[in-house]
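Example with several molecule types.
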Amino acid sequence: LAKTTQPISMDSYEGQEVNITCSHNNIATNDYITWYQQFPSQGPRFIIQGYKTKVTNEVASLFIPADRKSSTLSLPRVSLSDTAVYYCLVGAQADKLSFGAGTTVTVRA
Amino acid sequence: KAGVTQTPRYLIKTRGQQVTLSCSPISGHRSVSWYQQTPGQGLQFLFEYFSETQRNKGNFPGRFSGRQFSNSRSEMNVSTLELGDSALYLCASSLVPAGVTDTQYFGPGTRLTVL
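Resulting structure tokens for the full complex:
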């Protein structure tokens, strides 16, 4: 299993950019990297997925260096509603998915 | 398109009882995976079903079982409940077996409390 490591928590202010880095040194060749957002008592919500280089969608960007041993989720101009736990997920098959411990992002006014 | 739905949302049981949780995937999705989430262990994979067949199973005791119906709806059953089974049970669906390029979409979860 590709073990992931991410910061336990991060604090930010409204309007700032938040960058969360996830380490996954043992990532396999066919593993994709997926990030989810989770609010209390709700299921994780898909944010973004990538394999290499950079991926951008309407809510976030994902940067993956050439060695793929880490990835960085970038949330531009966060708001209070972005306060949540963010999970870095590495893996292909469901039984081999490795969920990180999650990063609690707290956005303050 | 409606998302993944799970019923019930909340459940309280006592030790020794059994429980059945239900999951309806997104229309057209044929793969359903189940996860257990607890504060101490985080998100742990239970099992995955695709076209009514269990494809993968996590490291949980045989008290945890599941099945999938022809309409892709899935149920999971936990027998002889233990206090440690208290958790948020999440269901996720995907078009095809959760794999390289497919994304899993999660339901809101069922909060199970065992007293």
